[in-house]
């Protein structure tokens, strides 16, 4: 082949390569300083810039700002040494949209070995990147709320610890748990429960200042990580408490689900730390302990971890074991406290549970009832209490002077919400041939926060069988007038906290008078609880109260 022919063959081959490369790739050529000297059509198409706009500029024109400075520094270092660089770059087109390109940059030298040009070939990998990003996002986020999940948390904690060390500042965790979630989920169904969790996530987003992390740990548990707080512990604590209190206040407001007003509070545990070498699991453990303490303190509480908590938690665990044993060994019994009329004649009794501990002696319910409720043991204990009360009514039914006396039994929310609660009561009434009108069930206001209509249906079923319901500790919950209007109650029990200072405190007296008036209009009986003195009794009587309970008439006793 002659030289002319050879040359034309090579030219043809090169032209073919160019066509093939142009068809497949985004191509640009720059001079040694990075100034663009050539772009192909694909480059213009993807960057939305014309060749005229690109030629003479540098690649800075399509810089997305997504890569850290050292990324390009490293790239330049490689190609300036005459080596090929390969990597994935995120660029920004003229319209501001991001796109990803898989890039190969080939440095081209002249015959003297001097770097003259850079030849870059790119392929569009945006689609692949987007699906990768999506998969990564899904792995690190909770599908329901869109919040980061537990896996994300580990990364976040590491980051926070590093930052805290670097800046010598405090960081904190707020662990949150909804107070009423299980109840809502059980009564309104999972769909509504899911909706509530989404609402809670939104509330958290509105309460936590940026740039901090809110993580859904699972179920109704959330974690807020606050970083770069003050170097001073007390000031850091104040900031965290402010955020936690804001969350508590927001979540304590009623929400609407399916046009129903529901109420879920939240308890929070806080752990503040600095330069911690503790593994992330330990950090979480301390926040969890504080949360446990907060829940133990009652609903809607915020607790900051302190070292004494660990001891208390161990003691609680021991109490749980002891309670389980006590249930098996039948160590619970009932004391009865009389309820009298204005003439001080006994009209009934309230059954109050006691734990006869083999070493500690008589233990009052305040020391164990909350834990029994939370652990689920309340179902067994509650059944025992109801059985003992029905047995007592049966025995009294045989004695003329006791046959008309009622027994009021305290019912926990967990017991009442159990689907077969009404069946249990009916079974016991039948077994002990109890006159149902003598068995009063004492409920508390919190029972109606979640599913008032379902609760009413359950109450009505038992009312049809002749049972009566009282609202215990009235005035200490939300005391919504709406409840009073629609709940089929027959009695209100004014909480002891109002009766206590009725003689000295005008406000308490006014509240009691209002409750009495309200009850009169709604045709409800009223029992004033915690009457301790003659003056209290007189004042209540003069205000129209007709039933009374308290140490003034008699303490709870084993035998009546
Ligand atoms: P409660 O139902 O409001 O019961 C009244 C509480 O006030 C009783 O405390 C009673 O001993 C106390 N009390 C009565 N009169 C006076 C008084 O004049 N002065 C003072 N200072 N106190 C008075 P107790 O027996 O310690 O029970 C506390 C709470 O434990 C009860 O409050 C009730 O909520 C709960 N409880 C008691 N027994 C049971 C039970 O069998 N099941 C459930 N779920 N809860 C129970
Ligand atoms: Mg009671
Ligand atoms: Mg009470």
UniProtKB/TrEMBL annotation:
Residues 13-69 form the PAS domain. SUPFAM superfamilies: EAL domain-like, Nucleotide cyclase, PYP-like sensor domain (PAS domain). CDD domains: EAL (cd01948), GGDEF (cd01949), PAS (cd00130). Pfam families: EAL, GGDEF, PAS_9. Residues 169-307 form the GGDEF domain. Coiled coil: none annotated. Residues 316-560 form the EAL domain. Its cofactor is Mg(2+). One of its GO terms (molecular function) is catalytic activity. Residues 85-137 form the PAC domain. PANTHER family: BIOFILM ARCHITECTURE MAINTENANCE PROTEIN MBAA, DIGUANYLATE CYCLASE DGCP. This is EAL domain-containing protein. It comes from Acinetobacter tianfuensis.
């Amino acid at each position: 082949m002659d030289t002319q022919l050879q040359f034309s063959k090579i030219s043809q081959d090169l032209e073919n390569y160019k066509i093939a490369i142009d068809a497949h790739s985004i191509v640009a050529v720059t001079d040694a300083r990075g100034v663009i000297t050539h772009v192909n059509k694909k480059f213009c198409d993807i960057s939305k810039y014309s060749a005229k706009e690109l030629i003479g500029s540098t690649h800075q024109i399509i810089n997305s700002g997504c890569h850290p400075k050292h990324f390009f520094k490293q790239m330049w270092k490689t190609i300036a040494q005459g080596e090929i660089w390969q990597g994935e770059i995120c660029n920004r087109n003229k319209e501001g949209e991001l796109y990803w390109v898989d890039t190969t940059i080939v440095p081209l030298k002249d015959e003297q070995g001097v770097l003259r040009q850079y030849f870059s070939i790119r392929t569009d990998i945006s689609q692949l990147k987007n699906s990768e990003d999506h998969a990564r996002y899904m792995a690190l986020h909770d599908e329901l709320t869109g919040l980061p999940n537990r896996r994300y948390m580990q990364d976040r904690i590491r980051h926070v610890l590093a930052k805290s060390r670097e800046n010598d500042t405090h960081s904190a965790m707020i662990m949150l748990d909804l107070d009423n979630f299980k109840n809502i989920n059980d009564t309104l169904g999972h769909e509504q429960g899911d909706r509530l969790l989404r609402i809670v996530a939104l509330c958290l987003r509105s309460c936590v200042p940026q740039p901090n992390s809110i993580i859904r740990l699972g179920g109704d548990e959330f974690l807020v990580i606050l970083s770069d707080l003050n170097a001073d512990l007390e000031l850091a604590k104040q900031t965290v408490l402010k955020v936690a209190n804001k969350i508590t206040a927001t979540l304590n407001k009623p929400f609407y689900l399916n046009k129903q007003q529901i109420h879920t509070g939240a308890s929070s545990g806080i752990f503040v730390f600095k330069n911690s070498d503790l593994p992330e699991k330990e950090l979480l453990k301390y926040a969890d302990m504080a949360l446990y303490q907060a829940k133990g303190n009652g609903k809607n509480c915020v607790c900051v971890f302190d070292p004494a908590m660990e001891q208390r938690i161990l003691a609680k665990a021991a109490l749980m074991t002891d309670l389980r044993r006590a249930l098996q060994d039948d160590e619970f019994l009932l004391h009865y406290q009389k309820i009298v009329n204005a003439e001080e004649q006994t009209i009934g009794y309230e059954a109050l549970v006691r734990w006869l501990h083999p070493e500690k002696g008589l233990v009052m319910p305040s020391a164990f009832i909350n834990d029994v409720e939370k652990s689920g043991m309340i179902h067994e204990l509650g059944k025992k209490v109801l059985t003992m009360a029905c047995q007592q009514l049966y025995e009294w039914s045989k004695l003329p002077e006791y046959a008309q006396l009622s027994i009021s039994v305290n019912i926990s929310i967990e017991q009442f919400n159990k689907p077969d609660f009404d069946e249990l009561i009916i079974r016991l009434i039948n077994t002990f041939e109890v006159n149902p009108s003598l068995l009063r069930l004492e409920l508390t206001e919190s029972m109606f926060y979640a599913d008032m209509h379902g609760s009413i249906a359950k109450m009505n079923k038992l009312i049809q069988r002749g049972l009566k319901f009282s609202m215990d500790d009235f005035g200490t919950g939300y005391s919504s007038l709406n409840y009073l209007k629609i709940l089929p109650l027959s009695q209100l029990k004014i909480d002891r906290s109002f009766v206590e200072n009725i003689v000295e405190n005008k406000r308490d007296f006014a509240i009691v008078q209002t409750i009495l008036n309200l009850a009169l209009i709604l045709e409800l009986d009223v029992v004033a609880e915690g009457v301790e003195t003659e003056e209290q009794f007189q004042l209540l009587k003069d205000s129209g109260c007709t039933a009374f309970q308290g140490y003034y008439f008699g303490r709870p006793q084993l035998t009546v």
